[in-house]
Design a protein that fits this description.
The chain is of the alpha+beta class. It has four helices and ten strands, in the order βαββαβββαβαβββ. A four-stranded antiparallel β-sheet has the order 3-1-9-10. A four-stranded antiparallel β-sheet has the order 2-7-6-5. A hairpin with a 7-residue loop joins strand 5 and strand 6. The radius of gyration is 17 Å and the shape is globular.
């Protein structure tokens, strides 16, 4: 079972992201945009786990949820991962201390299942790309930043989920397995 821990997004946030994605489609055909049903903010990717491990993951994630209070996320930045020369991921995000705290706590509890491979950064992946010119990426980033300056994309986080990621030829399908309410 391929699993990860993530925050879901409210419908009004997903609607705003879809509006931005429509604008991106007009600028670039080389970015594969994330669909509404797959929008989330990852806390930890756990990868393939045996079914027996999922019960323990649920238990440990529940302990983490009880130690954290609800908080706000404001997606106010746009960028790419790896870099502008070889971009792979288009994201919207923010520096968020509460996100870092809860992610570090999740990692401390769940690294026994899979070690963390990067520093926590609060972001929503909105697209993936390959073989795209730097100028085209800069145009898309400018569009995203202009959009974020006009539209506030902020929301309260009250819970997170354990998701199953089911791979198919049409792409991944995410299924919520368990909800964890913050205290």
């Amino acid at each position: 079972m391929r699993v990860f821990v993530a925050f879901d997004l409210p419908d009004f946030v997903k609607s705003k992201i879809l509006k931005l994605e429509d604008m991106i489609k007009k600028k670039s055909r080389k970015i594969r945009l994330v669909g509404r049903d797959n929008m989330h903010i990852t806390l930890k990717f756990l990868g393939e786990q045996p079914y027996q491990a999922v019960n323990r993951i649920v238990e440990l994630a529940g302990e983490v949820a009880k130690r954290h209070s609800p908080f706000e996320i404001n997606l106010n930045r746009a960028g790419v991962f790896k870099d502008l020369v070889n971009p792979r991921v288009l994201w919207l995000g923010e520096e968020n201390g509460e996100y870092v705290n809860i992610t570090n706590d999740i990692n401390e509890k769940l690294d026994i299942f899979r070690l963390s491979d990067n520093s926590p950064f609060c972001h929503l992946t909105i697209g993936r790309m390959k073989w795209i010119e730097k100028g085209e990426v800069l145009d898309v980033l400018s569009l995203c930043r202009d959009f974020l300056n006009r539209e506030r994309i902020g929301f309260s986080v009250n819970s997170f989920y354990l998701y199953e990621s089911i791979l198919s030829p049409k792409g991944a399908v995410y299924k919520k397995i368990e909800k964890f309410s913050l205290r």
